[in-house]
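Shift notes (night). Ran AcrR family transcriptional regulator while the centrifuge was going.
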Amino acid sequence: MNEQPAPASRRRPTHRKGRPTLTREAVGRAALDFLGRRGAAELTMRSLAAELGVSPRAVYNYVEDRRDLVALAAEIFASEWRPPPLDPARWRDCLRAYCDDLRAHYRRHPGMTTLALRENVTMARHPTMLRNVDALIGFFAAVGLPLPDAYRACMETIRAVVGFVEFQDAPYDRPPAHLDPDDLERTPPSWLRPDGGLDLPYLRRCADELEPDDNDARFAFTVEVLVEGIAARPALTAR
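Came back to this:
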């Protein structure tokens, strides 16, 4: 009796009508790109489907709802960052480079952190992010901090960078419609010269003495405060 050859397995086509077919990862990456360009307020299943050139029903084949879509985008976001090397012997320079690189990653996807918090989606459990956090704690421990302080230094590093991106970089990178970009760039800021005859001598002195700077200079100052604060910990000053 002749054996019949096994039927060839059917593979989903990679393109249809000139467009790549959707996958769950492709939908998540499209959402991440959408968030970077248009912001969280405009992200809906319908608006993303329009960007992809498909029907909303097609998107629902890969994600359950908007929260699942945000969780998928957050997962991809968390998985993509590869931090620079951390050498305890050169810890100050390495920490500065780490902060610069982390800032650049978050600036590529503005609003991702606040959106994840608002949607009750955590990025901290993704294996790549967990490995990055574990490595940073280990770095601070190798520098000489006790493990509890190494953990706190790790968390403070992340908070300092992400907070700067969300509250300082974001309005400059994508000014909201109600803000005048010239006001953002003005040094000193206008609020340092308040009206009303208030007795605010240090604000007025700052207004007179501040020199023009930019976000890169402000971020460098933020990182330097972080670096010197860690260097001042008793475990390191005693060495």
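The radius of gyration is 24 Å. The beta strands are 15-16, 19-20.
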